[in-house]
């Protein structure tokens, strides 16, 4: 996995990237994949079988990136620990235990913003869509272009429970939580040795 430079993340935002992603890029401390800001408490470690990168934090947060994932970890409150990720392509698996007084962990993709606390979940970005799957806990998923804090009655957001997933493409089609077949869940989780 190549180590992206800070400027690479600003120059490779997709055309029409959601305003939220652009604001996050300008106002947050960036922690590029493959290297973390100096002084961080969460050093990345390579892992094999399957090949991936694992970031473990003292508060129990664990983020795994499949081989070739293009992502940036964000530290919105600048405490040395990531509390969000900007995922451009590939997949992340997040084990985000409930952290008292901390921001819930958030993954931003071109299509979605997925937020959770006290849960295990995976997000995959490929082929112009984002898939979110929940192993345990609850995850709130909304379209990236839905204003922050908005709760949509028109199907532009959804709450996922364990075993459920959602596929999100650009557009306005309603988001629907569906129970994933075991084969599909296993294929995604297998990329993280699960």
Helical/strand content category: mainly beta
Number of strand elements = 14
What is the makeup of the main sheet?
14 strands, mixed
Taken as a percent bin, the fraction of beta residues is: 35-45%
Number of helices, counting only DSSP H or I runs of 4 residues or more: 3
Tell me which CATH architecture applies here.
Sandwich
Helix content: 10-25%
Report, as a whole number of angstroms, the end-to-end distance. 21 Å
**Radius of gyration computed on alpha carbons:** 15 Å
Number of domains: 1
Quick one: overall form?
Answer: globular
Low-pLDDT windows of residues: 1-39
CATH fold name: Jelly Rolls
Q: What is the CATH class? A: Mainly Beta
Give the H and E element order: HHEEEEEEEEEEEEEEH
Outline the structure in words.
- By secondary structure, this protein is mainly beta.
- Strands 1, 2, 3, 4, 5, 6, 7, 8, 9, 10, 11, 12, 13 and 14 form a 14-stranded mixed β-sheet that branches.
């Amino acid at each position: 996995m190549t180590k992206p430079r800070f400027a690479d993340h600003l120059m490779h935002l997709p055309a029409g990237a959601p305003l939220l992603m652009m604001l996050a890029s300008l106002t947050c401390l960036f922690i590029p994949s493959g290297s973390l800001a100096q002084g961080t408490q969460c050093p990345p470690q390579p892992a094999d079988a399957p090949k991936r990168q694992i970031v473990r934090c003292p508060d129990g947060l664990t983020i795994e990136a499949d081989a070739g994932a293009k992502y940036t970890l964000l530290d919105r409150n600048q405490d040395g620990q990531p509390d969000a990720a900007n995922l451009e392509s590939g997949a992340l698996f997040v084990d985000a235990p409930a952290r008292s007084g901390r921001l819930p962990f958030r993954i931003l993709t071109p299509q979605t913003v997925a937020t959770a606390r006290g849960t295990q979940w995976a997000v995959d970005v490929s082929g112009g869509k984002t898939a979110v799957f929940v192993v345990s806990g609850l995850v709130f998923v909304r379209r990236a272009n839905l204003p922050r804090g908005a709760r949509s009655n028109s199907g532009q957001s959804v709450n996922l429970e364990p075993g459920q997933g959602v596929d999100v493409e650009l557009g306005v089609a309603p988001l629907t939580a569906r129970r994933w077949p075991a084969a599909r869940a296993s294929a995604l989780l297998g990329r993280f040795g699960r």
